[in-house]
């Protein structure tokens, strides 16, 4: 009896010691809707997969809010160990001194396994990943194949010229919204410029130094946006605000509009909305005739490790990052959201699963193919300071042109002027600092 009691006591003490060693840490993210559901499912799966550590995943409502809160929390000494930041905040985070490069923390990971499109945006000048790509999206072209077929269009348009011709057929068939957009910076400027090989700013979009200047008002972007404004007047293009749904993706998902450019991360919502009503197709974003296709940019966000934490917390966070890299976790995330896998081995895993042609993986191969098109010095990504604020400037100025005044050229001239002012402020803030 005494031996049993001693053994039981020893076991209890050992269990208590194990529990005491368990490490809790926080991961802040900025998504809502189906993406948030998928993130929380991964958090639960990690916690269920082992008992040593526990991640608490905290939603902040949006990328912008998450970024602001994390920096404030870091300054007060209460930052989470892991934070999800979106693409536009990359340079701000790199120069903030608030994060530790993920490749420095996890030197033994095969980082070369990450797809080129994901690496280019988040790596340093010497090729080291600063953050771990996570929910990676890119721009794709969506069509309501059912509605296009009803208008006599049997081939998916590949060029903007073909989109215009398809829109004219749809309009002639009585369709009130052939193509819909919201004029968002990511879609009509960044992704358009990248795949057409056009610079947004000098110094290869800031990669070669903080003294970059915007040049978007001198490239084919001006003509493209002018075309969209003219096509809107002709009833071929609608803005989201023109639609009954009020938002461009909602208008497409409701069958109100027949074509759109959208994030691969929008696929799950479109497929669910179309179920039993329409057939949806996804393809690479359209090109203008005469331009060589280059890569589209990675969108979405990556995960950063913030400074100021105990070794045990960092070790626990590393385990979570390892977990998220697993092919089965990436496959589940792609199937639930439409976001693109970020490591090269996942497409092979999808093929081996026997479900490569399943609708839930519709964005995987095409998204990676789009991001892995030939790259130029101007299509790696954007390394511009205060770029989050510039996106707002771009929207403010181009919205005026959408509404009839001034011209799109004048709007982009104003965006360039205001954008350069932001760049000079950022340059002054980090005067003498070398880009990582």
UniProtKB/TrEMBL annotation:
Keywords tagged on the record:
Periplasm, Signal, Transport
Quaternary form? The complex is composed of two ATP-binding proteins (UgpC), two transmembrane proteins (UgpA and UgpE) and a solute-binding protein (UgpB).
Query: Where in the cell?
Result: Periplasm
Q: What is this protein called?
A: sn-glycerol-3-phosphate-binding periplasmic protein UgpB
Q: Where is the signal peptide?
A: 1-22
User: What family is reported?
Assistant: Belongs to the bacterial solute-binding protein 1 family.
According to its UniProt entry, what is the function of this protein? Part of the ABC transporter complex UgpBAEC involved in sn-glycerol-3-phosphate (G3P) import. Binds G3P.
GO CC annotations, alphabetized = periplasmic space
Reply yes or no: does the keyword ATP-binding apply: no
Gene3D superfamilies according to UniProt: Periplasmic binding protein-like II
State whether keyword Signal applies. Answer: yes
Top-rank taxon of the source lineage equals Bacteria
First-listed, main subcellular location of the protein, grouped into a coarse class: periplasm
């Amino acid at each position: 009896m005494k031996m049993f009691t001693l053994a039981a006591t020893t076991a209890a003490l050992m269990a208590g010691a194990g529990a005491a060693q368990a490490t809790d840490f926080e991961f802040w993210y900025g998504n809502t809707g189906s993406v948030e559901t998928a993130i929380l499912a991964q958090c639960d799966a990690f916690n269920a997969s082992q008992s040593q550590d526990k991640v608490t995943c905290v939603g902040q409502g949006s990328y912008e809010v998450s970024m602001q809160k994390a920096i404030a929390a870091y300054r007060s000494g209460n930052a989470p160990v892991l934070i999800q930041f979106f693409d536009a905040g990359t340079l701000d985070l790199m120069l903030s001194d608030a994060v530790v490069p993920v490749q420095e923390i996890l030197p033994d990971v095969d980082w070369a396994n990450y797809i080129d499109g994901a690496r280019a945006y988040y790596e340093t000048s010497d090729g080291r990943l600063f953050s771990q790509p996570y929910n990676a999206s890119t721009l794709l072209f969506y069509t309501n194949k059912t509605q296009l077929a009803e208008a006599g269009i049997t081939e998916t348009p590949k060029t903007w010229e073909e989109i215009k011709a398809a829109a004219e057929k749809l309009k002639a068939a009585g369709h009130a919204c052939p193509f819909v957009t919201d004029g968002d910076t990511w879609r009509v400027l960044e992704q358009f410029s990248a795949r057409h090989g056009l610079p947004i700013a000098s110094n290869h979009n800031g990669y070669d130094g903080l003294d970059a200047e915007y040049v978007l008002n001198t490239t084919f972007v001006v003509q493209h946006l002018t075309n969209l404004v003219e096509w809107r007047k002709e009833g071929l293009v609608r803005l989201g605000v023109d639609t009954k749904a009020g938002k461009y993706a909602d208008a497409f998902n409701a069958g109100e509009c027949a074509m759109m450019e959208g994030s691969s991360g929008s696929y799950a919502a479109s497929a669910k909305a179309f179920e039993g009503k329409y057939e949806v197709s996804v393809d690479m974003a359209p090109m203008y005739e005469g331009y060589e296709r280059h890569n589209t940019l990675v969108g979405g966000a990556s995960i950063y490790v913030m400074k100021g934490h105990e070794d045990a917390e960092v070790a626990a966070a590393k385990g979570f990052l390892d977990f998220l890299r697993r092919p089965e976790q990436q496959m589940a995330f792609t199937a639930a959201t439409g976001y693109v896998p970020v490591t090269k081995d996942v497409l092979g895993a999808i093929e081996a699963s026997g479900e490569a042609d399943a609708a839930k993986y519709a964005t995987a191969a095409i998204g990676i193919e789009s991001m892995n098109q030939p790259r130029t010095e101007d299509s790696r990504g954007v390394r511009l300071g205060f770029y989050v604020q510039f996106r707002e400037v771009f929207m403010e100025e181009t919205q005026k042109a959408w509404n009839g005044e001034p011209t799109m050229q004048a709007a982009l001239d104003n965006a360039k002027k205001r954008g350069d002012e932001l760049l000079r402020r950022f340059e002054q803030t980090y005067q003498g600092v070398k880009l990582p």
